[in-house]
Amino acid sequence: MLVSLPLASCGGGSDGSGASSNSTTATSGVITGFGSVFINGVEYETTNTSISTDDNAGATESELEVGMVVTIDGTVNDDGVTGEATSIHYEEQLKGPLVGTVDIANRTFTVLGQTIIYDDLTSIGSLDLSTLVNGDFLEISGFTRADNTLYATRIEKETGSVSTYKVQGNIRSLNNGAQTFVLGGLIINYSSASFVQTSASALVNGMAVRVKGDAANFNSGTSTFTVNQVKSKEESYEDGERGSLEGYITAFTSVSDFEVNGVAVTTTSSTRYDDGSAAGLALNVRVKVFGSFNSDGELVASKIKLHNASKVGLEANVTAIDIGASTVSVLGVEFVITNQTKMEDDSSDNERFFDINDVSVGDFVKVKGFESSSGDYVAALFERKNDDNDNPEIKGKVTAVSGSSISLLGLTLTVDGSTTYSGGISAIGDISVGDTLEIEATDALLAVSVELDD
């Protein structure tokens, strides 16, 4: 995958930390592509890598998928964008039955008492969330937020009989006498559980844990789950060990004292910021942190990248490709592909090692991203799909609006009497410059439907 923006991750010269070549690194983040494994902007070679999952200690790379949150031990080279993984481990954050149906409008649903949220960047493959019904068994990978909701980076529907449920989260309402605590909206009874990397006496509120148990021991009526294992997700790190961490700020005291996924982070006057500043740090903000651990187990940040919400998007045919510049134009709108773009092939080609070199003019793709400070459109997600005669879909900020036309992303769309409106607007006159719209259009750029995006 070609790299066109300086979004390099945790190597020596790339983040200003002065790390030596092949520095040992503990990494946690989302898989964004294959051809090796791409995580947090680094391509990790996996030729000699030990790969494991919660259910398979001897797993292979083929069991990993884009959107999974994994942990990696390995080394990163001086270029900051290549390295070698010694081990990769995957554990889903949640595995259990859907309660009710998915709230498509608000992009939420419930599994085992946990509120799941998702967005344009969540990997769902060919899964149509609107078709899911009560009791469908789902596997969720993602990040726990400070409000105890779970942001899904990947959603999969499981088939066949499932006997084990799994939940990961932060302990609340610990009751040592009753031997219970709460994860999200689920009461966990640990009276007959075994403990991994912790003990019953070591449990405290706020502690990150993973529990699992037999499906038969989940009581949906009382939202109680009697589990057979409690595993601590608290990690320990060596003084001087390099670290790369993605997730939400789950505790916040100040811009120099906060936690990401329960890991203590501190900043210094030398900390650099991408796509924001220290003022943007707050509870529930999603970040990537790169640095080194100190003797107190804190990740001393040399660089923090603030997450950009997807406010730009297109679903249409590719109109141009520039391999050298690492750009792809969709409907004439140019997007930059970076080493942190999530690359997926959901077409019939099903290319696992999918990158810009596999894209052809005419391919139907879904691209979601954001506008950089330099005015470039940067792809956070680039997914090739089958062209099933779908209408183009366009998402962006309105730059001009008149009686019969709307301009966004450099495109001008027309409306007529058949155009429908939603999201709190009922006519083109309700639209203002600066609004973010989602528009379904014909190939001639006639707006079929216009929705105001909140």
Write a concise synopsis of the structure shown.
This protein is mostly beta strands. It has no helices and 38 strands.
Chain-wise SSE layout:
Blueprint: E1 23-34, E2 37-39, E3 42-45, E4 50-53, E5 69-76, E6 82-90, E7 94-103, E8 108-111, E9 114-117, E10 137-144, E11 150-157, E12 164-170, E13 172-175, E14 180-183, E15 186-189, E16 194-196, E17 208-214, E18 218-219, E19 224-226, E20 229-232, E21 242-254, E22 257-260, E23 263-266, E24 272-274, E25 286-293, E26 299-306, E27 312-322, E28 327-330, E29 333-336, E30 342-345, E31 364-371, E32 377-385, E33 393-401, E34 405-408, E35 411-414, E36 420-422, E37 436-441, E38 447-452
Parallel strand pairs: 1-21, 3-6, 4-6, 9-11, 15-19, 16-20, 23-26, 24-26, 29-32, 30-32, 36-38
Antiparallel strand pairs: 1-2, 1-5, 2-3, 5-6, 7-8, 7-10, 7-12, 8-9, 10-11, 12-17, 13-14, 14-15, 17-20, 18-19, 21-22, 21-25, 22-23, 25-26, 27-28, 27-31, 27-33, 28-29, 31-32, 33-34, 33-37, 34-35, 37-38
What report would you give on this structure?
By secondary structure, the protein is mainly beta. The chain has strands at 23-34, 37-39, 42-45, 50-53, 69-76, 82-90, 94-103, 108-111, 114-117, 137-144, 150-157, 164-170, 172-175, 180-183, 186-189, 194-196, 208-214, 218-219, 224-226, 229-232, 242-254, 257-260, 263-266, 272-274, 286-293, 299-306, 312-322, 327-330, 333-336, 342-345, 364-371, 377-385, 393-401, 405-408, 411-414, 420-422, 436-441, 447-452. The strands form four sheets. Strands 1, 2, 3, 4, 5, 6, 21, 22, 23, 24, 25 and 26 form a twelve-stranded mixed beta sheet that branches. It is globular and about 65 Å long. The protein starts with 22 loop residues before the first strand and ends with a strand. Residues 1-21 have low confidence and may be disordered.
